[in-house]
Fold this protein.
Amino acid sequence: MKRFITIFPGGANIHLIKDVGMIPYFLQKEGYYKSSVACYEKRESMEYLDTEVKGLSYYRIKKIFENENLNIFFFLLCHLRRFDVVMFFHQSFIKTLIALFIKVITGNRVKFYFKLDANDSIKESSFAKSKGLWKKFKVSLYNKADLISVESRSLQNFFEQDVSMRVAYIPNGFDFEKLSFLTEQDLNKDKEKIIVLVGRVGAPEKDNLTMLNTLCMLDLQAWKVEFIGPIDETFQRDIDLFFEANPRLKNKVFFTGPISDRNMLLRRLRNSKIFVQTSKFESFGIALLEGMSCGCFIVSTELTPAIEIAGPYGIFFEVGNVKKLTFILQSIINEEIRLPAETDIVSRAKQEFSWSLIVKKIHSYLDR
């Protein structure tokens, strides 16, 4: 069996349940490759290797040089016979040169997959906007990769039409077997009137202040709101001021902190009716997909990934538009907007974003 490795030097335990770990894990689970992942972290710090991605092999990249690309290059040279396909994140000129060098010295035996993990801001990057021979040269080199992918169809169109790069549309996915712990009683239980937000609370790109400002104006009635995720120290002051100004919401709005138990997190999502995302930008929005896979209706900023993921099972608003977000949520609370059936939401997620289907697509590209 051929061997697949994901190279992600800065990876931590949490990345194993995201695309960094899920792609190699499911490629192995579905029988396409013997898979592994390589990061700087010590093996004992990667707890999910023994639970969430059991069976996935792990290599530790040594920090021999200050330059990350040199560490990657040295690692690949030392393990040249242990892989047939290498997956990189965020294609760059140097990584592409490394890939081409490895392909040459192995007689083109080793294939390279670049997952761009990009959002719409890449359209404004210096590379995308550059012109002339240098850009044509770089693009010609990039196109020598065996597979390059993005997570949205609009970015695929942009790269193919505006940049002349051969790029595949391969979104991220969800492991629906992770919901097998739910009992029949759990599945038959009606969702609760809960609005949930998941992510690093207070991180600038998450723009949680927009949600706090919205809550000041909402009549929640019987609804509750949960912010799930670690709280940025700089945001704690905003939370304190919010409750000082709105003491009526102390029994309505909750900050749970991070939930490391995956079953507990998924159960929270399964019990919630609405998943809100106020982000200024997202490369894909894995937490949003998890919410949708658990049957949550999506209310999100009008980011391309969110629109493509949720489709007809979401309502979207402009970044930072408190007035519009307030109107949407109040309309749902007042039952002026009727939410679709949970089964319909989950059905879309399964058809479009199952990891099993996604890795089948990846293998079909790499097996050519």
